[in-house]
Design goal:
Elements (H helix, E strand, L loop, with lengths): L5 H10 L10 H28 L1 H32 L1
Helix pairs in contact: 1-2, 2-3
């Protein structure tokens, strides 16, 4: 879930409380599948755009992935600081 923000994760946790008769959190699972599919489509579009723009497209794709990596790292740091300050 590299593209998930804290709000997305909180929503999935809240939706996972609602279970079907079989005991599965169907709404949360459908939401996760949709998020993964949209992320996959975004990556596919970025790769196609990279082929059309030649050199600049590969830089665009690399920067997009770098932005996601920075956002994940910042979220981990902020979560760790919050837990450190509270605990």
């Amino acid at each position: 879930m590299f593209a998930a923000s804290p709000g997305t994760i909180a929503t999935v946790i809240a939706l996972s409380v609602v279970h079907t008769a079989a005991g599965l959190p169907a709404v949360a699972l459908v939401g996760i599948v949709i998020a993964v599919f949209l992320t996959w489509i975004t990556m596919l579009v970025m790769l196609i755009a990279a082929d059309r723009f030649h050199n600049g497209g590969k830089q665009m794709f690399t920067r997009f992935l770098g932005l996601i990596l920075i956002a994940m790292g910042l979220q981990f740091v902020l979560t760790g600081l919050k837990d450190f300050m509270v605990g």
